[in-house]
Amino acid sequence: MARLLSVLCLFSLTLVYVRAQTCKKPADVAILLDASGSIGRKRWPKVAAFTKSLVNSFGVSEEGSHFAVVMYATNTAVVVDFDDFTGAARTPENINAKIDEVDYNEWKGMTYIDRGLDTANRMVFTEENGMRPDKKKILILFTDGKQTKTRDPYTELDIAAQPLKAKGVEIHALGIGKKGKIDVDELGSMATKPEYVYTAESFDDLLPMALRIIELSCDLPRKTTSVKYNAQGNFLSHLFT
Ligand SMILES: [Mg+2]
């Protein structure tokens, strides 16, 4: 029985993979990754796999999309800059290799989403850091929690997101976790539109959710019929579960 289930799981994953669409419109895309202690060493590879699937789907090339990765917890860091690779070296493989180099053991800590937004605004979405003024700008924020409010002073997230939105950055906010662990209203306070809030309970839902993000951020027709959504367009589950 277990064997049959694992074969079925493999089948559904393959199906999700095959249906992945590629974004042909060039955009400057940054992903803002929660690296706080709640992620944990075991789940970090799922976050990395999600990030790499986005890199693959956005059609990274010199003329195509450019990609940046910011991590945040108590501190923040830009781990992939828009300008890390140029010309023929700007490939999904090179960017994904940098994501593979990230050592989650150096992270953990609190969930300062506001600091992550501030870093994305000051150190990624600027022309000095490689942002192209004439291209679409997309920020995909991932968290498995909520803004830390009980320690240091923090900035309310709608305020922290404002400078990015003022530059025309379209913000997609994605939360993984059970009710109470994530705050849908908080995600909504950052997202550019209500449809750009994505929620699911399991880290195993990250990969299929990437497809929905690609569809919405790239104005592609909905083809990911292998996953289900609720009335708000948020991810619910695989059809094969
Ligand atoms: Mg956390």
Automatic annotation (TrEMBL):
Signal peptide positions are 1-20
**The keyword Mitochondrion appears for this protein:** no
Please state every residue range assigned to the domain named VWFA.
28-213
Domain of life per record: Eukaryota
Q: Where are the transmembrane segments?
A: none
Question: Which key words tag this protein in UniProt?
Answer: Signal
Q: Which Pfam families is this protein grouped with?
A: VWA
PANTHER family xref list: COLLAGEN ALPHA, PH DOMAIN-CONTAINING PROTEIN
Under which name does UniProt file this protein? VWFA domain-containing protein
**What organism does the UniProt record list as the source?**
Exaiptasia diaphana
